[in-house]
């Protein structure tokens, strides 16, 4: 009786051992099959490309820049490389590329938006909130401020454009009434920003720092009749009759 129990227990342990081995083999095979299906087979390949978010760009321009490898397994598509190629387009501010299983690659772009314009090298150029001159206009666009940025050095011009754009955007977001009074903006350096207001008035803004404080001080100063208001040092503002 003891021998029979021992024999039965031994057979049961062998069955369990073989079952574990079989399950392990099946698991490995399943994982291998899944890897093959996703990474190497033609079942989950790129068949469609969707482009969203564009406003002035043509879909064909985005697709041409993206160079999406149709027919390649979706999992093996280098989305970072595609984002890099699309973001190189002048009018693209940001881009996100994502996989939409089983067969679609989605490209979502956010285009740059001009916040001011300037004459650069004889052209009317739209400048975005990052100070980048990214597009040309046939004539000065309505609704945008003119920016005078006569700076030969490209790096200094970009830094100054960025500072100017930051001021224009902040004023537009925080003080719409003041924004309507601004006729143009100018700067010789990133720290010498000036606003040309209606009625021949000038505001010396200085750098783009402390914008909120400068707006608060300027609101009070504008109640004084003057031709020049200096808030470049907001704790020590001055006016000139």
Protein model, in words:
It is a single chain. The protein is of the alpha/beta class and 241 residues long. The protein has six helices and twelve strands. The chain has three domains: 1-41; 48-111, membrane protein fhac (Ubiquitin-like (UB roll), Roll); 114-240, Rossmann fold (3-Layer(aba) Sandwich), CATH 3.40.50. The chain has helices at 2-40, 59-66, 79-87, 154-174, 176-181, 211-221; strands spanning 48-52, 92-100, 104-111, 114-120, 123-128, 133-137, 145-148, 182-187, 193-197, 202-206, 228-230, 238-240. It is elongated, with a radius of gyration of 32 Å. The model has no long low-confidence stretch (mean pLDDT 87). A hairpin with a 3-residue loop joins β2 (92-100) and β3. α2 packs across α3 (79-87). The chain starts with a helix and ends with a strand. The strands form two sheets. It has a nine-stranded mixed β-sheet with strand order 6-5-4-7-8-9-10-11-12.
Task: From the structure above, extract its key features.
Ubiquitin-like (UB roll), transmembrane, elongated, three-stranded mixed sheet, 6 helices, about 40% helix, FtsQ_DivIB, alpha/beta, about 240 residues, Rossmann fold
